[in-house]
Amino acid sequence: MTVSEAARPGGPTRTRELLQHRELRRLLGWLGGGVLLAVMTGPQGVIGQPTYAISHALRGGHLVTCLVVGVVMWGLSVGWSHGRESVHAGLAEPRAQLRTAWEQPAVRRGFYLVLLALAIFLPRLTGQFWQGVLVEQIGIYALLALGLNIVVGFAGLLDLGYVAFYAIGAYTTAYFTDTLPVHPPFTINPFLVIPFAVLAAMLAGLILGAPTLRLRGDYLAIVTLGFGEIITILAVNLDSITNGSRGAFGIPSFSIRLPSWLGGWHYEWGLSSLPYYYLLLGFTVTILVLFHLLENSRVGRAWVAIREDEVAAQACGIPPVKYKLMAFAIGASTSGFAGVLYASKISFINPSSFTVSASILILVLVIFGGMGSLFGSVVGAAVVQWFFKYVQKNNGAPIPLIHKKLPIDVQDLYMYVGALLILMMIFRPQGIVPSRRRAREISMAEHGIGGADAMAAPVGSPTP
Amino acid sequence: MDRKFIVRAALPIALGAVALTACSGSSGSGSTGNNGGGGKKTYTIGFQGPLSGGNAALGINEKDGAQLAIDQANAKGDLPFKLQLKPADDQGSADGSPPAARSLIGDSNVIAVVGPSFSGASDAAGKLYSQANLLMVTPSATLPDLVNHGFTTFYRAVADDFAQGPPDADYLIKKAGAKKVFLIDDTTDYGKGLASAFKGELSKAGGKLAGSDSAPQTSTCIPGATGSTSQYPSEASKVKSSGADSVFYAGYYCDFALLAKALRNAGFKGQLMSGDGSDDSKYVQGAGAANANGTLLSCQCSDIASNPNGASFISAYKSAFHVDPGAYSAESFDVTNAVISVLKGLGSNPTRQAVVSAFASVNYQGLTKAITFGSDHNLKVQTAFLYKVVNGKITYVGDLSKLV
Amino acid sequence: MCFTHNFWSLTIDGLNNGFLYALIALGYTLVYGVLQLINFAHSEVFMSGGFAGLFLTQWWVGSGTPGGAESIALVVCGTAVGAVTGGTVAFLLERVAYRPLRRRNAPRLAFLITAIGASFFLFSLAGKLFGRDAQGIPTLYGNGKLFSVFGGDVHLYDVIVAGSACAMLLVLDRLVARTKLGQGIRAVAQDAETASLMGVNIDRIISQTFVIGGLLGGAAGFLFGIANNVGYTMGFVPGLKAFTAAVLGGIGNIRGAMLGGIALGLVENWGVTCVRNSWRDVIAFAILVLILMFRPTGLLGERLGRSA
Fold it and tell me: Which of these, A184, A230, A420, B346, is most buried using a 10 Å CB contact count?
C-alpha cells in the first residue's frame, strides 16, 4: 500500500500532502461509509422525486448518528491497527491452550456431542414458526449448501445453475406421487422417491457436466446458469407435463409402514415441522460425516490437486474431467435429495422456487460459511437464513439488536447481503468457519504462490 | 493458527443465534390474551401477503385496507374486545408462504387471517391453516382451482378468473367490435388461468383467435424474473403479421405497459384489453398516456372513487396512510369488516373454531360487494367491472355482467 | 411458413436488440480482457445509465412534447448523461470493490463473489433511492415509420439505436487499435506483469478500461430505457444476455463481443417466430452451448491482446 502511494506522482500542495496522510484518508473513508449508511438506512424513495430519499436521509439526527458510527468505526480501526500485535500476543497463550485441547480427540468428540445435543434439544423450546424455518429455510438449504460446497469449495467449479437439480428432485417427487398431469406407472411414498430423485439429479448432472466440464471456469459458470434457466423455463412452459406455473399440489408427506410380518408399524411425518427437523438432522449429520470421509479420501485429495493446479494434477496422473464430473454428480444428487425433502414438506411446488436467485442464495450461504468447509456450510445456512427470517418476521418494527435509529427495511435485504459479500471478500474471504486448507491456499495466493481455485491464474497481476 | 481461534469465536455466536431464535420464538406465542389499556382483551387479526419483493405494492395496499378497518372498529368501541392487526410477509411466493402462515398460526391470539393475496401462496399455506382451524379469507387470489383443494377454512372473497375472462371476451367481441384477437399471457399462474378462461369463451362469442403467445414477466418489472424486455417488439411484429385487430393481455400492469408501448411504437392501432392485474394507474404511467388511451381493463374490484359510499373510505384511508387507496385496498377493507362483523356475534371469547363455523354464514354488505358464500366457499354473487383509459385516467365504465 | 411470415420485421427487431447487447457485452469483454473477471455488476452500470437519462429527460421535458431540434438534443444529452453516469459507477466499482482484492492478489472466485455482491448492493440501493416501480422515459420524439425493408418497418428508434451503437463501436475499435490507451489495454490484457515492467501503469489502465466499459453500458442503458422503461432491476436480463453474447463471440475479444451481440439478438428473434416467446432463453442458451462445444473459446477466440 505504502509503496504504491509513494510511487504516485505527488503534488507539492499542502492539501495533497494532508490527504496522503494515512489516518486522515482512513477517516475520510469511514465518514464516506457513514454517509452511505445514512442513505442505506434512510427513507424509501418515491417515484417521480429522485432526490427525495437522499435529501431526507442526509439530514438532522439520522446523518449525525451515521457519521458518529463512522467515526467510532474509524477509532476502532485505528485502535485495532495499533493494538493488533498486543492483542495477538495476549491471546497467544489461551489460544495455544485451546489448540492443544482441541487436538485431543476426546475434546473434539465431546464438543461435537454437545453441539448435537443442543441441535436436538434447542428446537423443542421454540415456537412452530422457528421450527418451520429450521426445516424449510435452514435445514434444506444447509443440505443444498453442503452439496454445492463439494462443487465450488472442493472441486473449485463455479456452478450458477445448481438449483436446477433441486427442481429435478422436487419434480421427480411430484411425478412419483401422482400430482402432475402425467401419471406415473406406480405411485409411491416420497420416502421411496429418494433413490429415483437422487438418480435423476445425478444423471442430469452427468449429462450437463460431460460436455461442459472440459470448458474453463468462466464458461462453466455461464453454461450452468443457462442450464438452470432452461430447467425453470421447461417447468413453466411444459403445461401438460409439469402443470406450468400452477405447479403440483398435494404431494404427500413422508410416511413409513412396515409390512405386517414386521408388526405393521406405521408413522406419518404430517404437517408439523419437528419430526421433519429430526429426520433432516439425521440426514444432514450422515451427509456431513460421509462428505468428511470423502474430503480426506483419495477423491478429496484429487479435488484439492485439481483446484490448486490442474496442469500439475494432470501431470501426476489425475484425470481432471473424471474427478470434476464426480464432484458435479455428487453435488447434483445432494441437491436432488433436498428437492424431495422440500416437495414433501411443503406439499406444493411451483417453478418460482427454482430461479437463478435461489442458486445465488445457495452460493452466498457457501461463501459466507466458508468455501471448502463442510461445517461452515451448515453454519452459513443457519446464520444467513435466520437473519433473513428474523428481519422478515419483525417487519416494520425496529430490530432490538440494532439501534432503533437504524432500522432494516425488509425490502432492502439484498442490499445488506450485497454489502456483506463485498466486505467479506475484502476482510475475510475464507468465510466465518473456514476450512484450514482453503484459508492456507488463499494466504498462499496472496503471497503469489499458486492459485486457490480451478479458474486458472489469479486476477490481474501483483501490483508493484 | 488464526483460524482456529476464530472457529471458536464463531461458534458461540452461532449458538447465540440459535438461542436468540429460541427466545424470540417463545416470546411470540407467550403473550396470549394480554389485556389492552381499557381492560378489554386484545385479539389479533392476521394478514398474510407480500410486503417485500416484486409484488409488495399489492400486499401493502391490502394490509393498509385491513388496518383501516381494524382501527375504525376499535374507535367505534362496540366490540367486546380490542383488535389489532398482525402482518406476515410471504413475498407473494410459495416459498415464503408457510413461514408467514406459521408465524400467524403460532400466535394463539390470532383468531382470523385476511389473505394470502396470491394463489400460489394460498396453495402452499392452505393445509396449515386448515389444520390449525384458522380462518383464511383471501381478498385477491383468483385461481379457480383453489377452492377444490380441500382447504376447510379457506374462503375466497373475490370473484375468480371465470367471472372475468369470459365476460371480457364477450365484451371485446360483441361491444367493442373486435373480430380477431391476439391473446398473450405472462406465464404466471394468474396469467395462464385468465388466458384460458378468456380463450374458452372467445369462439362462443363469435370471435376468432388470430394467434396466441406467452411472454414471461421481465426483469424490468419483477426482480429476478427472466423474460427479456426486448421480447415486446418481436411480440408486436407477431401481432401485426397475424392480422389481429385487438390484443388481450393476461398479466400484470408493468409488463402490459411495455407491451402497449411496443405495440403502439410498431404502429398497431387496434383495441387493447387486460384484466385486473393491469388495472393500476402505473400502467398508464409506464406506457405513456398516449399509448394507453382507449385500453379496456376489467377487474373484480369495483371502482371505489366512483362509488357513492366510497368517499368517506377514501378520505379516511388518505389521512391514515397519506396515499390514495390502491388496487384491492377497499376489498381488503371489506373482507376485514366482514370478519369483524362475525366476531361481533361471538361474545368476548371467540375461538378459532367458532370463527370458522360462524363465517360460513356471513352476510355482510361491504363498500365493494356483498360478502356471502356458497357451499363451495366462493362468493355467491360474482361480479366484475369494466374500466377504460380515457385521457390518461382509468375511468369506470360499468358492471361487466350488465354490459354484455 | 412461420419463419418467412414476418422474417424482416423480426430481423430489424433482432438487429436493434443485437446492437444494445453488443454495447453492453463490450463492458464485460473489456474487463475480462484485462482482469479475467466476469464483472457481474456491469448490469448495474447499465441500470445507472438508464436512471440518469430518465431523470434528465423527466426534468427537461416536464409535461411538454418536444420536437425537432429539441428531440435531437434530448436523445444526445440523455445518452451522454447515461454514459457519464455509467462510467462513474464503473470507476467507483473498480476503486471500492475490486482494487482492494487486486492489491491482495485474491483468488478469482473472490472477485466473482464481490461482483455478485456489488450487483445486489447497487440494484437494491437504486430501488431504495428511486422507488421500486418501473418508470417510462417521457416521449422524446414522434416514433414514426421511416421506411420499409421487404415489408419490415424501420422506425426512428431503430435508426437511433443502430446509428449511435455503430458510432460507439467504431470509435472503440479505433481507440483500442490506434491510441496509446488502446496499446496499454492490449498490453495489460496480453501480459500484465510484463506490461508493468515496461512502464505501463496497470492500475490506471484497469481504471480506464472500467470507465470505457461503463460509458458504453451507461449509454446502452438510456437507449434501452427509451423503449423499455427504467426500473431498478432492469439490468438483470440484458446483462445476462450481453454476457452470453460476449462468451458467444469469444470473451475478451472486442470484435467478438460486437459479433456475438448482434448474432444473439438476431438468433433470439428469429427463433421465436415459430415458437412461443417464453422459449427465447432456451434458444439463446442452446445456441451458446452448441457453439462452445465446437468452438470452446467462442466464435472469434479469446484474447483481447490479439483482437486488433
Answer: A230
Angle at B143 between CA B141 and CA B148, to 5 degrees: 110
Q: Are A372 and A253 in contact (CB under 8 A)?
A: no
Residue A464 resides in a domain: no
Instruction: Provide the grid cell at A374.
Output: 463442510
For cell 464430473, what's the residue? A325
> What domains are defined for chain B?
42-159+307-371 (3.40.50.2300), 165-299+385-403 (3.40.50.2300)
**How far away is chain B from the Cα of A52, in angstroms, using its nearest Cα?**
16
State which amino acid sits at residue B242.
Answer: S
Going through A102-213 in order, the beta strands assigned E by DSSP cover none
DSSP state of B297: E
Interface predicted TM-score (ipTM) = 0.90
Residue type, A17: E
Return the closest-CA partner of residue A165 out of A215, A232, A222, A221: A232
Residue A270 banded pLDDT, cuts 50, 70, 90:
confident
Domain end call among A309, A344, A370: A370
- The answer, for C168 touching chain A at a CB cutoff of 8 Å, is no
Between B222 and B168, where is the model more confident?
A: B168
The x, y and z cell numbers of residue A27, run together, are 477517516
Please say whether the beta carbons of B377 and B362 come within 8 A: no
Q: What is the DSSP letter of A44?
A: P
Residue B214, pLDDT > 70, answer: yes
Q: How many Å apart are CA A175 and CA A242, to the nearest integer?
A: 9
Could you give the domains of chain C?
A: 2-120+147-294 (1.10.3470)
pLDDT tens string B273-328: 999 888 888 899 889 888 999 999 998 877 777 777 788 999 999 999 888 888 88
Q: B2: which strand partners?
A: none
Q: Where among A336, A370, A404 does a domain terminate?
A: A370
- Same-domain pairing of A136 and A29: no
Domain that holds residue A43: 13-85
Q: Give which of B51, B61, B188, B228 to mutate to test C binding, by max C Cβ within 10 Å.
A: B228
- Grid coordinates representing A140? 434444506
Give the separation between CA B348 and CA B43, rounded to whole angstroms. Answer: 10
Strands B271-274 and B246-250, how do they pair?
parallel
Q: Are B295 and B273 in contact (CB under 8 A)?
A: yes
Q: CA-CA distance, C25 to C257, in Å (whole number)?
A: 6
Q: Which three cell numbers stand for residue C265?
A: 439478438
At A232-256, the pLDDT tens digits run 999 999 989 998 888 898 899 898 8
Calpha distance A201→A157 (Å, rounded): 18
A11 — pLDDT class (breaks 50, 70, 90):
very low
Residue A264: what pLDDT? 77
Q: B94–A249: do the CB atoms touch at under 8 Å?
A: no
Query: Which positions in chain B touch C268 (Cβ < 8 Å)?
Result: 228, 230
- Look at residue A389 and tell me if it is in a domain: no
pLDDT, tens digit (0-9, with 9 covering 90-100), for C250-295: 888 888 999 999 999 999 888 888 888 888 888 888 888 888 888 8
Q: Which three cell numbers stand for residue C5?
A: 411470415
The answer to whether the CB of A81 falls within 8 A of the CB of A44 is: no
Chain A neighbours, 3+ Cβ pairs < 8 A: B, C
**Helix extents (H) in A370-412:** 374-393
Domain identity same for A19 and A165: no
Residues A205 and A327 placed together within one structural domain of the fold = yes
> How many domains, in total, are found in chain A?
2
Q: Are residues A315 and A255 located together in one domain of the fold?
A: yes
One-letter amino acid at A193 equals V
Contact C98, C37 (CB under 8 A): yes
Q: Which residues are CB-contacts of A168 (< 8 A; sequence separation ≥ 6)?
A: A197, A200, A201, A204, A231, A336, A339
The residue of C34, C120, C241 whose CB has the most chain A CBs within 10 angstroms, and thus the best one to mutate to test that interface, is C120
